[in-house]
C-alpha cells in the first residue's frame, strides 16, 4: 500500500463527495417530513400551506439527484488514493451496495410517488379569489394519502441506508 494522496485535488474531490452526501441526506430527510405532513393533511379538508404547494410544484427534484455524485466522486477518490483504497475493499463494496439500494429505492418508489403527488397537488389547488381569502380547503384522494405514505416510507428507508453508508465510509472497517 502507498500513502493516501493528500493534494489539493484530492481534498476538493473529497469535499464534493461529502457535499453530495450532506445534500442527499438533507433532501431525503426533507422528503420524509414533507410526505408525512402531506399525508396528515390529506386526511382532512385543511387547506394546503404554501410551503407544501411549493414543495410539490411539478418538476424534477434536482437536489435529490445529487446523490449520484456520491459514487462518481467516490470512484474518483479511489483512483486518486494512490493504492490506499481499492474497489475490492469490503467496506467500499458494501458502500456501493448500499448506494445502489438507495438509488433503486429513490428511482423506483420515492421519486415516482413524489411526481404523482406533484400532479395531484397541482390539480387540487385552485387559485384564490384574493390574498385576504386565504387558501381554499383541498380535498385530496385516498390515492394521494397512499402515495404520501409510500413516499414517506421510501424516503425513510433511503435515509437509513444513506446514514448506514455514511457511517461505513467514516469507519472504513
Which helices and strands appear, and what pairs or packs with what?
Elements: H1 8-42, H2 50-55, H3 69-80, H4 90-124, H5 142-171
Helix pairs in contact: 1-3, 1-5, 4-5
Give a concise summary.
It is built from five helices and no strands.
State the order of secondary-structure elements, H for helix, E for strand.
Answer: HHHHH
Find the count of extended strands (DSSP E, 2+ residues). 0
Structural class: mainly alpha
- Cα(first) to Cα(last) distance is 16 Å
Q: Count every helix, treating DSSP H or I runs of 4 or more residues as helices.
A: 5
The total number of structural domains is 1
The overall average pLDDT, rounded, is: 88
Name the quaternary structure: single chain
Rg of Cα set = 20 Å
**Helical content band:** 55-70%
Largest sheet: none
- Assign an overall shape: elongated
Unreliable stretches: none
Strand portion = under 5%
How would you characterize this protein structure?
- The structure is a single chain.
- By secondary structure, the protein is mostly helical.
- The protein has one domain.
- Helix content is 68%, strand content 0%.
- The protein has five helices and no strands.
- It has helices spanning 8-42, 50-55, 69-80, 90-124, 142-171.
- The longest helix is centred in the N-terminal third of the chain and has 35 residues, at 8-42.
Task: Provide tags for this entry.
173 residues; mainly alpha; elongated
Amino acid at each position: 500500500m502507498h500513502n493516501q494522496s493528500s493534494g489539493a485535488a484530492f481534498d476538493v474531490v473529497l469535499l464534493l463527495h461529502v457535499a453530495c452526501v450532506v445534500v442527499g441526506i438533507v433532501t431525503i430527510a426533507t422528503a420524509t417530513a414533507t410526505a408525512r405532513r402531506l399525508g396528515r393533511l390529506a386526511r382532512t379538508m385543511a387547506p394546503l400551506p404554501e410551503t407544501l404547494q411549493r414543495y410539490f410544484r411539478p418538476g424534477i427534484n434536482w437536489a435529490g439527484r445529487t446523490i449520484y455524485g456520491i459514487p462518481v466522486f467516490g470512484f474518483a477518490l479511489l483512483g486518486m488514493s494512490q493504492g490506499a483504497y481499492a474497489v475490492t475493499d469490503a467496506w467500499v463494496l458494501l458502500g456501493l451496495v448500499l448506494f445502489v439500494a438507495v438509488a433503486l429505492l429513490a428511482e423506483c418508489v420515492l421519486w415516482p410517488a413524489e411526481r404523482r403527488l406533484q400532479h395531484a397537488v397541482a390539480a387540487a389547488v385552485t387559485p384564490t379569489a384574493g390574498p385576504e381569502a386565504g387558501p381554499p380547503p383541498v380535498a385530496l384522494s385516498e390515492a394521494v394519502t397512499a402515495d404520501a405514505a409510500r413516499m414517506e416510507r421510501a424516503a425513510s428507508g433511503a435515509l437509513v441506508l444513506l446514514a448506514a453508508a455514511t457511517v461505513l465510509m467514516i469507519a472504513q472497517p
